[in-house]
Amino acid sequence: MARNQFAEPHFHDEEAARKWFEAARWPEGPICPTCGSVRHYATKKPGRYRCGEKECRRDFTVMTGTVMERSHAKLTQWAAAFHLGASSKKGFSAHQLHRELGCAYNTAWFLHHRVMEAMRRGGLDLPPLGGQGKVVEADETYFGNKPETKGRPKKPGFGHKRAIIGLVERGGEVRTFHVPAAHLHFVVDIVEKNIARESRLHTDESKLYHWVGKQFAAHETVTHSDYEYVRGDVTTNTIESYFSVFKRGMRGVYQHCAEKHLHRYLAEFDFRHNYRASLGYNDTDRTIAAVRGGEGKRLTYHQPH
Ligand SMILES: [Zn+2]
Questions:
Q1: pTM
Q2: Taking burial as the number of CB atoms within 10 A of a residue's CB, which of 133, 153, 175, 249 is the most buried?
Q3: Helix (DSSP H) and strand (DSSP E) numbers for the chain
Q4: Distance of CA 59 to the CA centre of its chain
Q5: 125: CA distance to ligand 1 center in Å?
Q6: Are 183 and 203 in contact, with CB atoms under 8 Å apart?
Q7: How far apart, in whole angstroms, are the C-alpha atoms of residue 114 and residue 190?
Q8: Hey, what's the torsion of the CAs at 36, 293, 85, 12, to 10 degrees?
Q9: Judging by beta carbons within 10 Å of its beta carbon (0-12, 13-18, 19+), is residue 23 exposed, middle or buried?
């Protein structure tokens, strides 16, 4: 990463940062977050607008109704946090933010979690992955330990690990899910809700996918227990390499990750994959996408773990 990655004015000047966020969130001008109206007045305070609708008349800023609302952090700090979150290849951490910004660790933790939340996509309204002639790979993996087994001797198997189910459209988007356990009903539910039936489904030989696989145009498997990883174009290598990027990133950058936050870390890695350079996105596009993803989301917790 270049040393002068924070050279632009919106990393140093609050006014410049406000204008940068306004341009990112409202390219056509301010929109009232309460009623959606574009009619507004400027107030005496720069950056504070008043809704022009009689029934509404609410005051708002670029932070209102986003993950930034009610934060005491400066907009320049938010700008740096969004930039680091969107431009670092393997993830960024509260520690890194704390060092780069010279702010209190609690502030950095706060910024980090809110930027991750901004990167998280809504669950139910997403269009299904795949489609006619497309391949979707599905696989499950295990990461970290569940807190209740901490300090106890580990049982053989994966029962003490956190389970993750991952789906990836080849050449397209990834979607991962933290589940209580890699059990059949979680797998079936996620696969049914997130993959278009016209797709070809690629998995390993795991029994988890046998039944649900019948719903797809094809269900093709590679037999990992026989060391078969690729057969023609049948493989789960895309989702497996995604999992390994996630695990490397989590080991290298994140010291601790409470189970309740795992979905948010996954969302951060999903976001970077889905806005990756090979799909034509640069750091700025990705940063703006993250800022816009922060709309309509407010976090309620306040305690660093
Ligand atoms: Zn309004």
A1: 0.85
A2: 175
A3: 9, 10
A4: 30
A5: 25
A6: no
A7: 25
A8: -10
A9: middle
Calculate how far, in angstroms, residue 22's C-alpha sits from the geometric centre of ligand 1. Answer: 17
Instruction: Say how many Å lie between the CA of residue 290 and the centre of ligand 1.
Output: 24
Q: Give the span between the Cα atoms of 234 and 151, in whole angstroms.
A: 41
Q: Give the distance (Å) from ligand 1 centre to CA of residue 27.
A: 18
Q: Ligand 1 centre and the CA of 37: distance in Å?
A: 6
Enter the tokens of residue 204: 């390993």
55 Cα–ligand 1 center, Å: 8
Q: What are 196's two structure tokens?
A: 């278009």
Evaluated on CA atoms 265, 266, 267, 272, the torsion sign reads: positive
Q: Render pLDDT for 207-245 as a digit per residue (tens, 0 to 9).
A: 999 999 999 999 999 999 899 999 999 999 999 999 999
For residues 135-160, average pLDDT: 72
Q: Are strands 218-222 and 200-204 parallel, antiparallel or unpaired?
A: parallel
Distance in angstroms (rounded) separating the CA atoms of residues 287 and 293: 10
Q: Are 59 and 49 in contact (CB under 8 A)?
A: yes
Residue 189 · residue 169 · CB < 8 Å: no
User: Residue 23's pLDDT is what?
Assistant: 97
Token pair in block for residue 90? 């393997």
CA separation (Å) from 56 to 29, 51, 113, 119, 192? 18, 6, 31, 29, 41
- Amino acid in the structure at residue 2: A
| Average pLDDT of the residues in 105-113 | 92
